[in-house]
Amino acid sequence: MAVESPTAPATPERQPFRPGLEGVPATQSAICDIDGQQGLLTYRGYSVGDLVAQSSFLETAYLLIWGELPTSTELRAFEHEVQMHRRVSFRIRDMMKSFPSGGHPMDALQASAASLGLFYSRRALDNPEYIVGAVVRLLAKIPTMVAAFQLIRKGQDPIQPRDDLAYAANFLYMLTEREPDPLAARIFDTCLILHAEHSLNASTFSARVTASTLTDPYAVVASAVGTLAGPLHGGANEDVLAMLEEIGSLDQVEPWLEQAMAQKQKIMGFGHREYKVKDPRAVILQKLAEDLFDQFGHDPLYDLARKLEEVAAERLGPKGIYPNVDFYSGLVYRKLGIPEDLFTPIFAIARTAGWLAHWKEQLGANRIYRPSQIYTGAAGRDWMPLQAR
Ligand code: SDX
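Above: inputs. Below: predicted complex with s-citryldethia Coenzyme A.
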């Protein structure tokens, strides 16, 4: 007979099952708000349009993580701290040299992000200095590790960060071994702002679930990186270019879409759980792509993208399916000379700010995630000996 514990808590009322937790609030958060009907996105109450026009990625990261825009003294100190922690131990670089050069950079990033936990004490979550240290180290070292694997897989030694370059320019320098054009660096920094945070998307949910067990922040980010890698989430930006290249020419756009829809294929870079209009980030990224084309020359794939968006609007628009953040981002990165399989690692560089903001917020009011389930399996079965099966 089950012995009732004298103070057994009342069983919470069972909620209906919602696939993918669609529409189910799984946390309370003050970090980011999305209006999917109006196509509005705010970080800590500031519109992403204002942040793109006025801010930088590191200032936006500070806002997301600490909740307020920094004073100039606070911002300078934060930028200096991140700059001083960009270097990565030779042990991690040597580990990356043993990775297969054909491996996907997201797998290399997940492994190297997790390895950071080997170097820093694990359980000091009640120590504010540990929290600040983890925030600075992850923001500083994730770009260095992405750039390092790019050079290592080409058979080269990674190059050290340059302390005289700002965050975005330094990443492009470490990646390409050349100091970037100021417009390219500014546009890349804007891309990082646009990808920094997006409420409870799949990888951020992973981060919060992992954080809720009180593990170290390096494991939290590694868990989120693995989640972001999927083609339905951050991996779509890489697939969009492959899709446009498969379409090949303007006259093939409509027939390609017809066939894809007939085969119930998901159009990469389209659709969103929250937005039922064009993703506001896609609107800004499209303009950034056009700015780059004006300065550095056109990309015919952009014409295919515009045509696909136009044709898809008739067929998918009525279902609330429009371009999302991944539809134009790849065209920007391609014009910046970034290899396609680095598009998602770049998404991870930016989203580390959001993951860290949610990690900190989860710690501030933590209860370990342990949802319920509706059991649909067999019950009360008698054992079947092997010879009788
Ligand atoms: C990101 O959550 C976030 O905030 C994520 C993100 C962030 O910043 O973190 O914004 C980043 O992940 C952007 C999304 C990148 N992924 C893609 O572009 C892949 C293609 N998109 C789809 O797989 C899809 O739209 C999702 C995954 C983005 C959203 O999926 P949902 O909300 O679970 O929608 P669903 O798959 O249940 O589809 C609902 C209906 C279906 O039709 P019916 O069966 O009801 O007739 O809409 C259709 C789907 O077939 N549909 C699409 C479609 N997306 C949804 N049909 C064609 N092409 C698509 N892209």
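The mean pLDDT is 95.
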